[in-house]
Design brief:
Helix content is 37%, strand content 19%. The protein is α/β, with parallel strands linked by helices and 314 residues long. It has a domain of 215 residues: NAD(P)-binding Rossmann-like Domain (Rossmann fold), CATH 3.40.50. The chain is globular.
C-alpha cells in the first residue's frame, strides 16, 4: 500500500483526495472511516436515497448530489486521485419490481461517474461490482473467467457497470478495477425497506420474537463476506500494480447454507416459496484477489455473525 501522502522529494506533501460515491451507505461509510483513519482527504458524493446522514463521517467533505444527474456531480471529481464507486440501488427484489428506476442508478449513474472521472483526470476508479453477475453456473467455485449469467435486472445492471468500467480502461487508458462482492454483511447493514439481506431479516425476526422466514428449502448457500474485509480489498485496489479493468472476486471463499445461518441466529423458522431470480449457490474463488491485490479474508463468518447478534439481535 502506498502512503497516504504524496509529493516531490524535498517538497511539501499533501494528503491524496479520495471520492467515495455512496459514502453514507453501508459499505461506503466504512470505507470513508478507514480512509480518514489513514490520513487521506475524503469527499463523499451521496443523495441519501439509501445512505444515512448518521453514518456520514463529519470529517469528510460532502457533495450532496445524484449520480443520475451528470451535471450536478461533475465538480465533485475535481482534484480527486481515486474514486471508489459504491453508490447503487441494491437488492434483487427491488430491481424486479422497479427495473427502470434501478437501471438509471446502477447503469446510467455508473456511466456518469466514469465520464466525470475521465474528464477530471482521476487516476483510478474502483467499481463495486456484484457476484450476482454469475447467476447459475455449472460448477463451483465461481471464477472470474466464467461467462456471466445474470438472472435478474440488478445482476444485469451491475454487470453492465463492469463492462463500462473495463471499456473506459481500453478506450481512454483509465486505471479501473471491478471488485465483485459476495454477500456483504456487517455493522450498518440495512434492517428495513427494500435493501435488507437474509441476515437482516433473520435478526429482525429474532428481535421481534417472530419465526425466521426461509425462502425455499434453505439448503441454498451463500458466500458471506464481512464489510471490513471488503474495505481492505478496496484499499489494496487503490494502489495495486494492475488496474486494467479486470473483475476480481471479493468473497470469503466459504459458503454457508441459509438453514445454517438460521440455526446460528436461533429461533423457530418457517419455509416460504423460493424467490425468482436468485442463484442457488455462491462460492468465490479468491485466487485472483490473492494474486492481484495480495488480499485474503480475515473475518470468520461465525465471528462476524456473533457480533451482529450482539448489536442487533437482542
Amino acid at each position: 500500500m502506498m502512503a497516504a501522502e504524496t509529493g516531490k522529494p524535498g517538497g511539501s506533501t499533501a494528503p491524496r483526495l479520495a471520492l467515495v460515491t455512496g459514502g453514507a451507505g453501508f459499505i461506503g461509510s466504512h470505507l470513508v472511516d478507514t480512509l480518514l483513519a489513514r490520513k487521506m482527504r475524503v469527499r463523499v458524493l451521496d443523495n441519501f436515497t439509501t445512505g444515512k446522514r448518521a453514518q456520514l463521517n463529519p470529517a469528510a467533505e460532502l457533495v450532496e448530489a445524484d449520480i443520475t444527474d451528470a451535471a450536478s456531480i461533475r465538480e465533485a471529481f475535481r482534484g480527486v486521485d481515486c474514486v471508489f464507486h459504491t453508490a447503487a440501488m441494491p437488492r434483487v427484489p427491488l430491481s424486479i419490481e422497479k427495473p427502470v428506476e434501478t437501471h438509471m442508478v446502477n447503469v446510467i449513474g455508473t456511466l456518469n461517474v466514469l465520464m466525470a472521472a475521465r474528464d477530471a483526470g482521476v487516476r483510478r476508479v474502483v467499481y463495486s461490482g456484484s457476484s450476482s453477475a454469475y447467476g447459475e453456473q455449472p460448477r463451483l467455485p465461481l471464477r472470474e473467467d466464467m461467462t456471466p449469467n445474470p438472472l435478474n435486472p440488478y445482476a444485469l445492471q451491475k454487470l453492465t457497470g463492469e463492462y463500462y468500467t473495463r471499456l473506459f480502461h481500453s478506450l481512454f487508458s483509465m486505471q479501473t478495477l471491478t471488485l465483485r462482492y459476495f454477500n456483504v454483511y456487517g455493522p450498518r447493514m440495512s434492517h428495513e425497506g427494500a435493501y435488507v439481506t437474509v441476515i437482516s431479516v433473520f435478526l429482525r425476526a429474532r428481535r421481534e420474537g417472530k419465526p425466521l422466514t426461509i425462502h425455499g428449502d434453505g439448503e441454498q448457500t451463500r458466500d458471506f463476506t464481512h464489510v471490513l474485509d471488503v474495505v481492505r480489498a478496496n484499499l489494496l485496489a487503490m494502489d495495486c500494480a494492475i488496474a486494467d479493468g479486470r473483475a476480481i472476486n471479493v468473497g470469503n471463499g466459504r459458503n454457508i447454507s441459509i438453514n445454517r445461518v438460521a440455526q446460528l441466529i436461533g429461533g423457530p423458522a418457517v419455509n416460504l416459496p423460493r424467490r425468482p431470480g436468485d442463484a442457488r449457490d455462491t462460492l468465490a474463488d479468491i485466487t485472483e484477489a490473492q494474486r492481484t491485490l495480495g488480499w485474503r479474508p480475515e473475518v470468520k463468518f461465525e465471528d462476524g455473525l456473533t457480533e451482529l447478534i450482539r448489536l442487533y439481535g437482542q
